[in-house]
Specification:
The protein is of the alpha+beta class and 165 residues long. It contains five helices and four strands. Strands 1-4-3-2 form a four-stranded mixed β-sheet, with helices on one face.
Length: 165
C-alpha cells in the first residue's frame, strides 16, 4: 500500500506539472529565440503597464517574433505572451501608420512652403497632431502607457539613446 506522501508524488504532482507546463510553453510560441528565464511573462496590457510602473526606464521592442520590454542596459525585463501579442501588433501598426502619415504630410508641407527648414515644418505638424489629443496620449510615439507615462516630455531615454519609447 502506498503512503499518502508517495501517492501525492507519483499521481498528483505529475498531473499538476503536465497541466502547468504546456500552457506556459505554448504562451511563448511566437518567439523565434529562447526567452530569458528571468523575464516576467505578461499576458495582458494591465500586467505590462504594471511592470512598466515598476521599471520606469524601459523600452518595448518588437523582437524575435514577439515583444520584449528592455531596460537601459538592454536586459530583458518582461516579454509579452502570445495572448497579448496581437493587441501589441495592432498598436505598433497604428503607430507606424501615423508616423508614415505624418511624414507624408510633412513632405507635402515642405514642398508647399519654401524657405522653411525641414525640422521646423515637422515640429509644427507634430505639435498640431499632439494638441488635439494631448491629455490622452504620451508625446512619445511608442509609449503604450498613455496617462501613466512617467516621461511625458524631455524623456532622458529618448535624448540619451535617440530612440523614443
Amino acid at each position: 500500500m502506498l503512503s499518502p506522501h508517495t501517492l501525492l508524488l507519483t499521481l498528483i504532482l505529475p498531473l499538476i506539472f503536465s497541466l502547468v507546463t504546456p500552457s506556459s510553453a505554448m504562451s511563448l510560441s511566437r518567439y523565434t529565440a529562447p526567452v530569458p528565464a528571468a523575464a516576467t511573462v505578461v499576458e495582458t496590457r494591465e500586467q505590462l503597464n504594471e511592470v512598466v510602473r515598476k521599471n520606469a526606464h524601459t523600452v518595448l521592442h518588437d523582437q524575435d517574433g514577439g515583444y520584449m520590454l528592455k531596460d537601459e542596459s538592454g536586459a530583458v525585463v518582461a516579454v509579452a505572451a502570445d495572448s497579448l501579442c496581437p493587441e501589441l501588433d495592432r498598436a505598433f501598426a497604428e503607430v507606424e501608420a501615423k508616423e508614415a502619415e505624418m511624414k507624408l504630410a510633412g513632405d507635402s508641407t515642405e514642398k508647399a512652403e519654401e524657405g522653411e527648414e525641414q525640422g521646423d515644418v515637422h515640429r509644427r505638424d507634430l505639435e498640431k497632431v499632439q494638441d488635439a489629443d494631448r491629455p490622452l496620449r504620451c508625446s512619445h510615439p511608442r509609449c503604450f502607457n498613455s496617462a501613466l507615462c512617467l516621461s511625458y516630455t524631455d524623456c532622458h531615454v529618448c535624448t540619451r539613446y535617440n530612440h523614443c519609447i
